[in-house]
Design brief:
Length: about 850
Amino acid sequence: MAVEEEGLRVFQSVKIKIGEAKNIPPYPGPNRMRDCYCTVNLDQEEVFRTKIIEKSLCPFYGEDFYCEIPRSFRHLSFYIFDRDVFRRDSSIGKVAVKKEDLQKYHGKDTWFPLQPVSADSEVQGKVHLELRLSEVITDSGVVCHKLATRVLECQGLPIVNGQCDPYAAVSLLGPSRSEAKKTKVKRRTNNPQFDEVFFFEVTRPLSYTKRQFDIEEEDVDKLALRVELWNASNLKFGDEFLGGVRVPLRVLGQAGVHEAWYFLQPRDNVGKSVKADELGSLRLNIIYTEDHVFPSEHYSPLRDLLLQSAHVEPVSTSAAHILGEVCREKQEAAVPLVRLFLHYGKIVPFVSAIANAEVNRTQDPNTIFRGNSLTSKCIDETMKLAGMHYLQVTLKPIIDEICTDHKPCEIDPVKLKESENLDTNRENLRQYVDRIFNVITTSGVRCPTVMCDIFFSLRESAATRFQVDQDVRYTAVSSFIFLRFFAPAILSPNLFQLRPHHPDPCTSRTLTLISKTIQTLGSLAKSKSANFKESYMAAFYDYFNEQKYADAVKNFLDLISSSGKWDQKSIETPIMLKEGFMIKRAQGRNRFGMKNFKKRWFRLTNHEFTYHKTKGNAKGEGALCSIPIENILAVERLEEESFKMKNMFQVIQPERALYIQANNCVEARDWIDILTKVSQCNRKRLSTYHPSAYLNGHWLCCKVSADSAPGCTPCTGGVPANIQLDVDGDRETERIYSLFSTYMSKLVKMQEACGSKSVYDGPEQEEYSSFVIDDPQETYKTLKLIVAAVKTLEQQHTQYKRDKFRKTKYGSQEHPIGDNSFQCYIRQQSESSTYSI
């Protein structure tokens, strides 16, 4: 969610890895172990909870959490809770990181000591106050003053034990002063409207000069107003403290008037002091990001430069490739680049270009796509974004079963438990591997089109580069789909949204063994047993018929690397996708022909959809009907009322529709899904269709008489083959700008490398050898455009910050007093305000 600020949108997000806790204090009593879980909170609002780790004082969580932050916050907090035998939760300790301190720990594994949790320290919300000093002349003629304190309202107070019945207590602090006055209690609200005024006499005479209020210096440090918020409780323990604020009277100044919002603060010296690690500690890795996104036109120069990258020759001179060169980690560049290119539908040509360049630099086919290059990271990110649904429908059922059943699968004799049998465990593991292998190798028709198009490009590049190696067209694809997609998802299902939490140690070990075996089965290596360092894994692999599994892998890889352009039949082998008996209605190709229903044997390949009189006829020539894939304009269900028959669907062609009845609802769904998948790349696909048949001279659905009338209902499209992402192109371009800005020194160094003699005569200077520069002149031109675009955006950011600084009032509702992050901003802007843009 973005916060709008005068045409600029502000996005906040946080990515957290909750590692482990250690040295948790033991539970009092004979059973000293604890059952602990960890929560993530924005201030006091819980936004994530880990699973419970049982019977441990050093629980390992290993859980990742990402969220877009939709509101302002003061602290990112983490609480460790213990659940006892009565399922009651008690807090052990907490870590609270101020928003302004998050950058200190950005991307670093950090151990944080747990601090005590007390009601007094759990403070949130803000209060709106107005103070006014007025003069009073006594009978003796002495000038004294009264302080009028108006408590207007509060926002965002914490809810305690399911309720919030707040009131405010106001007192004047100073020598011999203890006056306290209370507002009325506001029931059932954490945003109370008080609007009450309290008067306090300042009994010490104050100077009176030029009819202005001027408190003497010795009184300034002694007088202050204290406002505390309390929750009125019916419990015997008394009211709960919600937070307070101390306002020194020096803020009144000569005008004698002060109005502002304040963040509530905890009481001084709350809670007992604890020694370091007395409550244990928690290991966290926090990445907090704040993006300030301008209107789209501001990003046009940089965005256009990036989107041209796929068509730049050589691709190493393109803006996107240069970003990958200067970033410290390729992943930094890959994430926003992939999202940007996906958003504008240009990911396939871009990945194809950088992959082809990498293949041409590769000398050994056995090392193809083995490094953590920009190509590998971009394909990884594309698969993770485009293939999430594909993973879920393919792997989630069997992964859920494995995590629920807890069947023993340990095959390492050293780790085997006394109660377990090695042969039984091997059989359990073999059955799991077989089932997962089968669901993967039969899932090709569900592979998203964008992934298929990328795999086709990889296969073609590899086959062209290494023409002698017949298997390289398979290994180029398997190195991604098995090694970097399915195997990691099996190993860590929680990272791919297949499971809500990290699996328990026993299940995690089972998934590790399955992942290693699946990875090897899909690798098509010449000697697979040699891939295993462990002898027990090599022995387990002997249970599998190598040729049988290799054939299944190759068929699967052939299917998912088929070109989305169906005019490639001359170089593609037809791949059988699905076949079976169904009932079809005659299409009426003869004007006076019978339009009856007959049982036929249907076959679908990546080239055509055919039906035959019998299953035996399908093996030879002579299909009764052949529909090229490019002639399938839509595949949709047919309303039952058309022919009073269930489980019917229609394959719509340019001239007519073929009406088919499947044997059951599941089979009908499967045929619709797969036919939609293979035909979805057709450019002439329909956007509307008729859900009922054309009978008796009109369409039954819309009653239109013309048989060529456009459809009356939007096409559903079946299972989406192309990824549709909720991607903000401007936000991704802003992130890329931030990366270029961060690595500006490297851009300058790369410019120097382009002009260096070492580029032309060879990498003689080590300081430039880390850059890939195939064409120094073109690279220099692109760098110049990048630097110009980045500097323009930098100027716009600087101007915005200065405009905001001039307009912002510290103590406003948006920026209350006590907002330390805003104080840092004020200080930074004050320091830089003397410099011109």
